[in-house]
Structures are given as structure tokens and as C-alpha cells.
């Protein structure tokens, strides 16, 4: 009798276990606030869905590489973050599930998402991920420092020359380093586009040697070497731009909404002194948009269940994320309800932002990115001339982005 | 079956050794041969499972044709007109193919039966790609059973010769080894001699010298990041001597040197232990005789200690070269400029970021041969026997 009971219990257990589908979702661990929000989103889903249970398993370290390795072994999670920078690489390797059929079948409101963000995750006419949020770059400034030295605040209508002028004023009046700048290619891009230059030409060869692009690069470097109003974070005793701004080593920084969250956590008194306006423009307005999607593993065993989870994550989940973690909503409907005044400049930038995804013949830009960043570092330290750097880029670019 | 006691002992020995034998075979020997194989191909790890991927053929057909057969009535001819079997397999089923496989699909995929089955609603069952290809290929379906990378012959190696960063990273690794190994060895000997002397607290000194070598390289890298940064401790100290602060890790001139100092500090203690053991083997009588003859400390050191430690020096320098040529951890954590990377970091970049596992394996093979050559030459020229 006892044995029968035990068998029955085990049977009931396994049947119920079989009936519940377990979906593993993964991303990189954010700051503690983001982590907390994700956990509550997962809880909410699990409460409201008895047949699907979601488990959040963040992967620290080199996320992209871990996912690729796990995929090669067949053990990748069902749903994971995909950053637009390496999205195309994953799409080409057939790691992501195309979602168009599901969107059509369920009448999913894909039009509620900003088109540029959906585009960021499209390849060969198919959509491979739903953007979960986005970030753009804007100009942070420290009101107290500007007041102290009697310089006018930056505004969203400033041109490059207004921007340079204000920085020079600060310097002349005694503030050592008004601006922090990173020798990072994606931070240079808004300048190239604002000067009406291009990153790549029609044949996908580099556009950085064209006159307009050259002008923009020269301006960026002059801020460091000629006008001496800018330094890279390491020279200011900071690990990154946000830290340099938080430590008040600089009066201005061009960075994204993640810095706001960071300041609120680490340097709350600086937040009160911070103003955020759109990036200075020249011929065009330009800024970067960084976005990450929820994508489904092409090899997942439970496609329909995974799709249900993605729908939740990008609707109810997004509402909770925007409110709790201070990110920018990728849905126009939710963006309309986000009235935090500090985020205005970021939302405004979405209209003219350039996605951090450079088209290449091989689908991978990271090799060229490493090379260009290496040149930028050399240029920041005056080790080579701009002429030399551009020549080397021109000669080798195609080999960096091919095969 | 009665086994002799000798056989029984042998078996027992093997069973005890089995765990380590198996793990060395699996995690060291097998990868070496696999790497050798991959270096002649364009192996992509993400494609290893591609034919085992499960999918629903009906969904793939719906993608290709934009037709929902349950809801609409479409004729066979309409679909057959624009159906492209190669594109179908490449983008809608979702498998990357080489030229041979593409040719096979063009010739032998039974598109007619596939479309008819699709319209009849017979494709709803989930199946693996290899099973699907078996069903619908009239011939040569064996090409789609397992992923076999393309054989490239020597082209990875030819590419290496033309690759600027291969030579830069190899040169960096060489320079690094040539400087670090002698300094490290010498420092280790000095530390061993110091630790061997009968001074107070020598147990403490031994521990202090040794601890860096067993500490996590990641933790040490973080600490040195702080020390070497522009407003860091090192620049403060040098500031007292009137030196301008230098960004040791970002400046391409000083970055590699900074890492060398880090590494020497870390591993000298480890080799000190080897030399300590070696020193115990030198009979004290030789020193006594030398002292009686009037030899001073440094004379005794260079003429007695150093030559008699020859076997240990050989061991330490070989281990040192093997380790230094492969230096990775510190470069990964601290070096941001592509000019200063070493060859194992370049291998890592190629394998995991630039999607060139085959090319990375080729570089790894070349590195293996270079280290093998160096250590063979070294053993030949520095005889192992001690002087007695």
C-alpha cells in the first residue's frame, strides 16, 4: 500500500513537472536596481502563468562569448539579450528565431515600437528580436561649476562652436578640464554624422577618409590636443566617463541614461546639480542609440512558450522596467507616459540617433572597431598624425571587415 | 580467472591513476589534436550542432512563401514558380552551407514533393534538419548529417604570414619572455639565497615572497590597475622625485614594461622555492673551503652557487619561457591597446570575437612549435648535469 502511494505521488509530481514548461532567460547582470526589477518581473510572470515558469540566470563577464559557446554546445538559454552591435553576427550564425510568423499570428503590436529600434534587429527582411529598451547619448553638465565660473549653461540648440566656446571659457577662467572624452569609435560617430560625413560608403568600404568625416575627427581630437579642454577618463583618475563626471573632475560629459542611474546611486549630490541637454550639432543633429533585444534561441524546445514570455517581457515587463530602472521605453505608448524631466534629452535624441551597428561584408565589425580604437588611442596621445592614421585605416579597412 | 598478483597490482595502479589519465586525455591531449585538425579548416563552433537543430518544416515554408496553407487556397504552380530551394534551406530553415552542399540541394532537393506536402498540411511535425534533408533529398542526403568544416589546406598559415598583428603580438611575446625570464630567474635565485641565510624571520620572508604566485591573477591585475593608473600610488611616489605622472598602462611605450614588472613580482616567489630546494643540495663544505681561501660573498655566489644550481636554472628558465610566451591573464585585464597585445591574447580574440576558430587554431599550432623549438634548443645547449 505504502509503495503504491509513493508511486502515485511520484507519478503526480512528474506529470505536473512535465506539464509546466521551464523557460530560461538570460542577460548580463545590471546594477543592483536593474537586477531587482528583473526579479520582480519574473515573479509577476510566474504568478500569472501556471503552465510556464521563467527562470532568470544572468551571465557575468563576456556575455556574448558565453552565449555563443553555450549555443555551440546546445545549452544556451531559451531567451537572451542581444545587443545590436553583435546582432548581425548571431543572425548570420542562425542562432536566433525569426519572429515574423508569431507577430502575424498573434497580431502583436510591433508598430508600437520605434521603427529604428525594430530595424536594429532586422536581417534579410526578418525580425529576430523585440527591443527591450534603448539609450541615446546626451550632454550632461554640472550647473554648479558653470555658475562658479560664470559661464552660460549648454543648451539643446548649441552648435559645436557654442559648445567649444563654453568649454574654452571655463578653461580660461581656471577650470582645468571642462570635458571628458573617450577614445572610443562609437563616441566619435555622432560627430562624424553631425558634420555630414559617413561611416561607410556604398561598397561598405570606410567613409572615414572623406573630407567631412576627416573634419569631424580633427575636431574631436583638437578638443584634446589643440584646445586642451578634454581628457580621457583614465587621465582624470576615473574608470569611465560617468565616474569622471560624478567625481566632478569635469564640467561636461557626453554619455547615456545609465550614467543617471549610476549618479543616483553613487553620487546623489551631483544629480541635483546635473542638467542634461541634447548633443551639440553642426550640419545635422546626431547621437548614438544603443539598444538590446529579447531574442529567442533558434534551438529552443518550447517556441510558443518562449514567445509568450517575450510578449510579457516587452509589455508589462517594460512598464515595470522603465519605472523601476529608469531606462528609456522602446514602446511609443510607454514612452509617452514617461515624464521624468531628466530623460527628455534622451527621448528627443531617438528621432535622429544612429544605431551602433556598422554594416560590413562579414557581418562582424568588432575587428575593425578594435583597430580603429587602437588608432584613436594613438591619436589621443599624439603618437601618430591624423594623416598617418587615416592612411592606415584606408589601406587595411577591407581586410578587417571581410571574410 | 585468477590473475597473478603482479597483474592485480598493475590493474589497481591503473584504476587509481584513471581519473587523472582520463582528464588529461580529455582536456589536454584531445584538444591538442582537435586544434591541429581545426588549424587546417575554417571550423566554426556555432555550426557544430546545426544539423541537429529542430524546426517545424511548415513554419519554414510559411516564411519562404508567405502563405498560410490552413487559411488560404494556393495552387502548387503559384508557389513552384518562385520557390528557391537553396534560399529556403539557407535562410528559412536556417543552416549555413558550403558550395558542395549548395550544389547538392540545387540538383537533388525534391521541391515538388515538398511543396505538395506543405499544401496538404503534412509538414507540421517538428524534426531535425538532418532528418528533413533525408526525407526530401533524392540523393546525397549524407552531406547533411554532421557538420564537417571545409578543408582549407595551408591557407590559414599563409594568412598568418601576411597578418600584421600576428607579427606584432609575437614580437611582444618574445620581448616579454627575453626580458622577464632572466630577470625572474636571477631574482628567484637571490631571494632563495636570502631566504636560506640564517636570519630571523626567514619563514615569514619565504611566505611573503611566495604568496603573490598563488594569488589570483585577476585580483593582482585589479590591484596593479590602481597602482599604475595616472593618479595612482606609483605616480604619487615618483612625484616626490619630481617626475610627471605617466599613465603606465595606456601609454603604448610603457604598457608592456609595466606588465613585465607585475609578472616578475608575481612569479619570482614561485621559482624561489625551486632554488631553495636546489640550495639544500649544495654541500656546505664547499662554501667553507671557499671562505677559508678568502672568497667574498659575491665571488662565492657567482662561482659556486650559480653553477651548481644549473639543473634548477634550466628547469626554471624552460618553465619561464613556456609561461611567458603564453602570457594571457594580465594582458586580458590590463592592456587596452592593440599595439601591446601578446600572441595568446590575439589567439583569443580571433577565436572568440572575430569568429575565426580555424585561424586561431593555426596560430596556436605555430606558437606551440615555436615554444617547442626554443625549449629543445635550450636543453641541447645547456647540459643538464651539475658540475660535480
TrEMBL record, chain A:
<dbReference type="InterPro" id="IPR006059">
    <property type="entry name" value="SBP"/>
</dbReference>
<feature type="signal peptide">
    <location>
        <begin position="1"/>
        <end position="19"/>
    </location>
</feature>
<comment type="similarity">
    <text>Belongs to the bacterial solute-binding protein 1 family.</text>
</comment>
<dbReference type="InterPro" id="IPR050490">
    <property type="entry name" value="Bact_solute-bd_prot1"/>
</dbReference>
<dbReference type="Pfam" id="PF01547">
    <property type="entry name" value="SBP_bac_1"/>
</dbReference>
<protein>
    <submittedName>
        <fullName>ABC transporter substrate-binding protein</fullName>
    </submittedName>
</protein>
<keyword id="KW-0813">Transport</keyword>
<dbReference type="GO" id="GO:0030313">
    <property type="term" value="C:cell envelope"/>
</dbReference>
<keyword id="KW-0732">Signal</keyword>
Automatic annotation (TrEMBL), chain B:
<dbReference type="InterPro" id="IPR035906">
    <property type="entry name" value="MetI-like_sf"/>
</dbReference>
<dbReference type="Pfam" id="PF00528">
    <property type="entry name" value="BPD_transp_1"/>
</dbReference>
<dbReference type="InterPro" id="IPR000515">
    <property type="entry name" value="MetI-like"/>
</dbReference>
<keyword id="KW-0813">Transport</keyword>
<feature type="transmembrane region" description="Helical">
    <location>
        <begin position="12"/>
        <end position="33"/>
    </location>
</feature>
<keyword id="KW-1003">Cell membrane</keyword>
<feature type="domain" description="ABC transmembrane type-1">
    <location>
        <begin position="170"/>
        <end position="378"/>
    </location>
</feature>
<dbReference type="GO" id="GO:0055085">
    <property type="term" value="P:transmembrane transport"/>
</dbReference>
<protein>
    <submittedName>
        <fullName>Sugar ABC transporter permease</fullName>
    </submittedName>
</protein>
<dbReference type="GO" id="GO:0005886">
    <property type="term" value="C:plasma membrane"/>
</dbReference>
<keyword id="KW-0472">Membrane</keyword>
<keyword id="KW-1133">Transmembrane helix</keyword>
<feature type="transmembrane region" description="Helical">
    <location>
        <begin position="313"/>
        <end position="335"/>
    </location>
</feature>
<feature type="transmembrane region" description="Helical">
    <location>
        <begin position="207"/>
        <end position="228"/>
    </location>
</feature>
<comment type="similarity">
    <text>Belongs to the binding-protein-dependent transport system permease family.</text>
</comment>
<feature type="transmembrane region" description="Helical">
    <location>
        <begin position="255"/>
        <end position="279"/>
    </location>
</feature>
<feature type="transmembrane region" description="Helical">
    <location>
        <begin position="173"/>
        <end position="195"/>
    </location>
</feature>
<keyword id="KW-0812">Transmembrane</keyword>
<feature type="transmembrane region" description="Helical">
    <location>
        <begin position="355"/>
        <end position="374"/>
    </location>
</feature>
<dbReference type="InterPro" id="IPR051393">
    <property type="entry name" value="ABC_transporter_permease"/>
</dbReference>
Amino acid at each position: 500500500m505504502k509503495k503504491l502511494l509513493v508511486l502515485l505521488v511520484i507519478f503526480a509530481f512528474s506529470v505536473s513537472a512535465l506539464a509546466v514548461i521551464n523557460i530560461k532567460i538570460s542577460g548580463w547582470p545590471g546594477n543592483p536596481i536593474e537586477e531587482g526589477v528583473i526579479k520582480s518581473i519574473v515573479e509577476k510572470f510566474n504568478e500569472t502563468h501556471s503552465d510556464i515558469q521563467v527562470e532568470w540566470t544572468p551571465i557575468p563577464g563576456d556575455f556574448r562569448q558565453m552565449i555563443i559557446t553555450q549555443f555551440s554546445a546546445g545549452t544556451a538559454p531559451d531567451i537572451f539579450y542581444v545587443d545590436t552591435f553583435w546582432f548581425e553576427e548571431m543572425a548570420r550564425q542562425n542562432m536566433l528565431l525569426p519572429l515574423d510568423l508569431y507577430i502575424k499570428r498573434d497580431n502583436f503590436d510591433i508598430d508600437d515600437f520605434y521603427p529604428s529600434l525594430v530595424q536594429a534587429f532586422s536581417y534579410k527582411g526578418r525580425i529576430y528580436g523585440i527591443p527591450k529598451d534603448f539609450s541615446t547619448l546626451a550632454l550632461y553638465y554640472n550647473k554648479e561649476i558653470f555658475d562658479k565660473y560664470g559661464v552660460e549653461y549648454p543648451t539643446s540648440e548649441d552648435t559645436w562652436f557654442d559648445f567649444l566656446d563654453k568649454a574654452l571659457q571655463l578653461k580660461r577662467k581656471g577650470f582645468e578640464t571642462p570635458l571628458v572624452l573617450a577614445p572610443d569609435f562609437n563616441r566619435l560617430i555622432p560627430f562624424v554624422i553631425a558634420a555630414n560625413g559617413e561611416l561607410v560608403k556604398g561598397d561598405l568600404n570606410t567613409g572615414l577618409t572623406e573630407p567631412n568625416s576627416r573634419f569631424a575627427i580633427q575636431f574631436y581630437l583638437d578638443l584634446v590636443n589643440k584646445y586642451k579642454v578634454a581628457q580621457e577618463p583614465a587621465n582624470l583618475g576615473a574608470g569611465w566617463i560617468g565616474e569622471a563626471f560624478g567625481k566632478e573632475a569635469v564640467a561636461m560629459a557626453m554619455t547615456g541614461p545609465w550614467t543617471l542611474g549610476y549618479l543616483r546611486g553613487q553620487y546623489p549630490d551631483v544629480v541635483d546639480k546635473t542638467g542634461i541637454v541634447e548633443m551639440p550639432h553642426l550640419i545635422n543633429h546626431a547621437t548614438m542609440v544603443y539598444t538590446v533585444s529579447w531574442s529567442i534561441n533558434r534551438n529552443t524546445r518550447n517556441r510558443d512558450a518562449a514567445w509568450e514570455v517575450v510578449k510579457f517581457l516587452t509589455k508589462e515587463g517594460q512598464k515595470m522596467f522603465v519605472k523601476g530602472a529608469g531606462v528609456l521605453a522602446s514602446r511609443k505608448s510607454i514612452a509617452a507616459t514617461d515624464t521624468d524631466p531628466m530623460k527628455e534629452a534622451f527621448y528627443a535624441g531617438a528621432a535622429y540617433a544612429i544605431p551602433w551597428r556598422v554594416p560590413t561584408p562579414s557581418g562582424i565589425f568588432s575587428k575593425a572597431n578594435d583597430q580603429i580604437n587602437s588608432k584613436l588611442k594613438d591619436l589621443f596621445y599624439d603618437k601618430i598624425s591624423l594623416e598617418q592614421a587615416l592612411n592606415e585605416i584606408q589601406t587595411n579597412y577591407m581586410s578587417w571587415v571581410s571574410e | 580467472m585468477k590473475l597473478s598478483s603482479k597483474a592485480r597490482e598493475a590493474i589497481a595502479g591503473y584504476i587509481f591513476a584513471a581519473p587523472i589519465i582520463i582528464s588529461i586525455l580529455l582536456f589536454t591531449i584531445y584538444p591538442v589534436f582537435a586544434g591541429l585538425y581545426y588549424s587546417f579548416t575554417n571550423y566554426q563552433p556555432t555550426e557544430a550542432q546545426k544539423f541537429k537543430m529542430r524546426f517545424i518544416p511548415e513554419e519554414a515554408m510559411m516564411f519562404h512563401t508567405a502563405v498560410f496553407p490552413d487559411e488560404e487556397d494556393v495552387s502548387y504552380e503559384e508557389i513552384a514558380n518562385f520557390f528557391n530551394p537553396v534560399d529556403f534551406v539557407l535562410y528559412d530553415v536556417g543552416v549555413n552551407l558550403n558550395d558542395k552542399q549548395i550544389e547538392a540541394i540545387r540538383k537533388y532537393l525534391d521541391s515538388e514533393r515538398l511543396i505538395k506536402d506543405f499544401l496538404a498540411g503534412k509538414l507540421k511535425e517538428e524534426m531535425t534538419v538532418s532528418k528533413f534533408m533525408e526525407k526530401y533529398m533524392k540523393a546525397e542526403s549524407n552531406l547533411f548529417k554532421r557538420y564537417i568544416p571545409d578543408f582549407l589546406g595551408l591557407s590559414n598559415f599563409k594568412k598568418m604570414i601576411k597578418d600584421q598583428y600576428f607579427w606584432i603580438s609575437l614580437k611582444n611575446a618574445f620581448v616579454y619572455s627575453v626580458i622577464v625570464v632572466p630577470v625572474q630567474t636571477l631574482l628567484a635565485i637571490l631571494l632563495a639565497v636570502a631566504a636560506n641565510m640564517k636570519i630571523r624571520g626567514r619563514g615569514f620572508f619565504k611566505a611573503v615572497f611566495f604568496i603573490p604566485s598563488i594569488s589570483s591573477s585577476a585580483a593582482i591585475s585589479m590591484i596593479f590597475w590602481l597602482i599604475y593608473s595616472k593618479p595612482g600610488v606609483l605616480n604619487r611616489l615618483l612625484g616626490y622625485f619630481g617626475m610627471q605622472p605617466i599613465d603606465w598602462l595606456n601609454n603604448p611605450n610603457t604598457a608592456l614594461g609595466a606588465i613585465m614588472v607585475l609578472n616578475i613580482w608575481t612569479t619570482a616567489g614561485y621559482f624561489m622555492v625551486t632554488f631553495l630546494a636546489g640550495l639544500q643540495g649544495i654541500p656546505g663544505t664547499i662554501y667553507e673551503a671557499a671562505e677559508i681561501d678568502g672568497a667574498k660573498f659575491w665571488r662565492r655566489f657567482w662561482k659556486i652557487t650559480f653553477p651548481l644550481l644549473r639543473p634548477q636554472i634550466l628547469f626554471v628558465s624552460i618553465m619561464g619561457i613556456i609561461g611567458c610566451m603564453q602570457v594571457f591573464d594580465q594582458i586580458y585585464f590590463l592592456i587596452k591597446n592593440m599595439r601591446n597585445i601578446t600572441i595568446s591574447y590575439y589567439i583569443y580574440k580571433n577565436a572568440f570575437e572575430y569568429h575565426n576558430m580555424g585561424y586561431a587554431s593555426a596560430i596556436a599550432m605555430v606558437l606551440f612549435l615555436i615554444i617547442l623549438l626554443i625549449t629543445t634548443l635550450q636543453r641541447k645547449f645547456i647540459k643538464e648535469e651539475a658540475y660535480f
